[in-house]
Amino acid sequence: MAALREEIRGYEWAWTPDTVYLGGGTPSNIAAADLRDLLALVPGRPWVESTIEAAPGNITPALARAWVEAGITRVSLGVQSFVETELRRTGRRHTAQIVAEEVAGLRDAGIGDINIDLIAGLSAQNESSWRESLDWVERLAPEHVSVYMLEVDEDSRLGKELLLGGVRYGALDTPSDDAIAAFYEVAVERLAGMGIARYEISNFARPGHESRHNLKYWRLDPYVGFGADAHSFDGATRSQNGETMDDYLAGRGRQSEPAAPDERLFIGLRLSRGVRPDAEEWRRFDGPIRRFLDDGLLERDGELLRLTNRGVLLSNEVFQEFVG
Predict the structure, then answer these.
(1) Pairwise CA distance, residues 225 & 239, whole Å
(2) 160-196: per-residue pLDDT in tens?
(3) Are strands 113-120 and 74-80 parallel, antiparallel or unpaired?
(4) Which of 110, 113, 230, 247 is in Cβ range 3.0-4.6 Å of 74 for a Cys bridge?
(5) Could you give the domains of the chain?
């Protein structure tokens, strides 16, 4: 915390931030007094939006009030699932009822924007249990929902077990890629029926409650990150702090590199509204754009280019054509 405060104090602000986001790991474990002191160093308060990520299970009414007093306006809850069997396999300690109680406590404290994270593809998940989680979302009526399709790293314990055809770590009960895609499509339909529309591949919101901070990443607006492994972007150059805590505390490992010239296209395509390629991008990527239009993965609306519903499910296949 001392190193983090020092880094923020030493930053020369050429602009005033209007959004703040505390994310990665579990920043909700930061002591209330430390959080207050930390946010006091950031100019621009009251910000348009100030988010903290939190793991359900230890959010007391007093803690929620302390967050509001520190300037927090939005809480992103890493729920993942509302089904006990799935939660136990992920090591999560909360229950659906605990989440409901904590959401009520956040509301009482004055938090007007709540996000719920769900993961499609957890071990033991099936269509019935997935719909049960979506039923809980409907009951709790959050302003924002994030739905992530599980991607298994081949180097993880689960990934190695799947490659070997084993049964440990829930490998036997891990849904297929087709099942995960079907869960995602069910979520898109159910959330739309709740008035929570998709505005980015993994993010859904009621009108006016889209994450103002995260939209900056997809629109390639500048932002600055503080802390171990924090990333920054000034509009032309991307930089990253030392990845490990030891490197960060020692001031080692900071890296910088020019932004990739093609990233505007594939990052912008993550947004439901699409992206407006410039003349050079239309010329350079004429081949893949035409192919994806013919295959029904992209659609054109005047000068806007966007993923179709089918294209969203195959987005990685599309994006790789626009990288490098």
Answers:
(1) 9
(2) 455 555 555 555 578 999 999 999 999 999 999 999 9
(3) parallel
(4) 113
(5) 2-210 (3.30.750.200), 260-324 (1.10.10)
